[in-house]
Automatic annotation (TrEMBL):
Residues 24-113 form the D-isomer specific 2-hydroxyacid dehydrogenase catalytic domain. It comes from Ptilorrhoa leucosticta. InterPro entries: D-isomer_2-hydroxyacid_DH, D-isomer_2_OHA_DH_cat_dom. This is HPPR reductase. It comes from the Eukaryota. GO terms for cellular component: cytosol. Keywords: Oxidoreductase. Signal peptide: none annotated. The gene is Hppr. Coiled coil: none annotated. Pfam families: 2-Hacid_dh. One of its GO terms (molecular function) is hydroxypyruvate reductase [NAD(P)H] activity.
Amino acid sequence: MAEEELPGVLILDIGGTHGVLENLATLLKKHFHLITMKEFLGNKEEMSKKIQSIFVFECRPTIDRELLESLPNLKVIGNSGVGVDHLDLKMISSFGVKVTNTPHAVADPTADIGMALMLASARRLVEGNV
């Protein structure tokens, strides 16, 4: 499938401090045409028609009314985290846009770290590692 046929996804950036991790971007590129905020802002008129989704990574890009109004073909906002507290769900749904998230993505690793910390504390492991 040619890149132009792939659905456009708006992301903040690839790499850097707040961008999508490069490994993740490589995976996303197999299924989507990635459009960075810089590309979008540089050519809003053309890019706004191509974007059907926004991929929110580490609460970025910020989803506000102005952004939603500029994306007439937007269908879904995919949030890469557990919570959606940083998204105004009522406003987003007023545009007919769906929101997804990954509620159980970090449940097991969080439990593993919690258990490891409790065991390390009970056995005074940190003190012995000095």
